[in-house]
Amino acid sequence: LTVISGVLNLGEGDQLDKVHAHAIKAGGYHYLPAKAHHYAFTSVPTVIQIHGDGPFDITYINDKDDPQKTAK
């Protein structure tokens, strides 16, 4: 993924841990292998570009975080 603008905070694991996340600023990039457990958050408006070879999917650890399952 590439950060187009803003700052994306990214960490590895199944639980959000803001202390161990690292900040990726605009112009920065990060590689995540398929099925890697990770979390991401922002504090400011941020635009990212996700790119790679497909197929692409997102598996949520917690169903309550999945907007497709909670949308009404």
Explain this structure to me?
By secondary structure, this protein is mostly beta strands. The protein has one helix and five strands; from the N terminus they run βββββα. The chain has one helix spanning 67-70; strands spanning 2-5, 7-12, 22-25, 38-41, 47-49.
Largest sheet, spatial ordering of strands: 3-2-4
Shape: globular
Strand pairing plus helix content: what structural class?
mainly beta
Total helical elements = 1
Give the terminus-to-terminus CA distance: 30 Å
Unreliable segments of 5+ consecutive residues: none
Radius of gyration: 13 Å
Mean pLDDT: 91
Strand content: 25-35%
Share of residues in helices: under 10%
Give the tags.
1 helix; 72 residues; 29% strand; two-stranded antiparallel ribbon; 5 strands; 3-stranded antiparallel beta sheet; mainly beta
Which helices and strands occur, and which strands form pairs?
Blueprint: E1 2-5, E2 7-12, E3 22-25, E4 38-41, E5 47-49, H1 67-70
Antiparallel strand pairs: 1-5, 2-3, 2-4
How do you describe this structure in short?
By secondary structure, the chain is mainly beta.
